[in-house]
């Protein structure tokens, strides 16, 4: 906060408190000239005006409010740049990365700083940590069909994953549907946990420099033809001749890296499931500019125990009923 805004807050706050105190003092003084509880001599339609003092209960509450206001402004941040004599803060400020957050938490703990968010997190870990540990000892396939574990996994999903994948986990453009059993890196419990722990970074390069505008149109036609779409056959045939550029990741048959046990996460181009849109314009845009999706890692933010439970929930989304083997 700049010095100007700090001074502005102080100028607005302190005079108001002082003004309220002076107003109360003025109202507690008898300015009428007659004793309290006596008539002032004014009468309208038979109703006399009485010089009544302020009710004691109201006066005491007003005084307590002023005292509490002064204490609060002195004890807690809020009065400009003043941080309060209690050293309280809602959270570690100015954090821009997970590493900075971790260091700030360690520093606050070592120095005994009163950081509200840190205290709440420590308390939650004490209370719920053993619960997560207990569930983490069990197999993912077992947890996936345990109603209590799924309730916990759903809460973790809504708090950490729903922003991108939606509250129903059906995804949106650029974020995969987790309920259709179509996986870029594998849908087994181990692969799902690996994705959640370490994240994923996709890298689909743009091909405009290598193919040119006409080449991109031809490649678009061929890619769409792989999923049975009606396209310009001449352009598709020309695109097929250039598909070797894509085969290293998607495979010569276009079925994607998962079908060929490749680590790239390249999607299946033959199933008509499109992460960024399956229209000719969307595919052409993908080929022209490339795609660089990022799935964040949750090992540091959630920890392995919570990720284990979340893995069970994500697996359950694509497998509503128990199966003898993982897909």
UniProtKB/TrEMBL annotation:
Coiled coil, from the record: none
Where in or outside the cell it occurs: the entry states: Cell inner membrane
User: Can you tell me which residues bind heme c 1?
Assistant: 161, 164-165, 295
Main localization (coarse): membrane
Transmembrane stretches, by residue range?
7-28, 57-74
Keyword Disulfide bond, does the record have it? no
How this chain assembles, per its entry, is: Component of the cbb3-type cytochrome c oxidase.
Do you know which NCBIfam families this protein is assigned to? ccoP
Q: What is this protein called?
A: Cbb3-type cytochrome c oxidase subunit
Q: Give the species.
A: Rheinheimera nanhaiensis E407-8
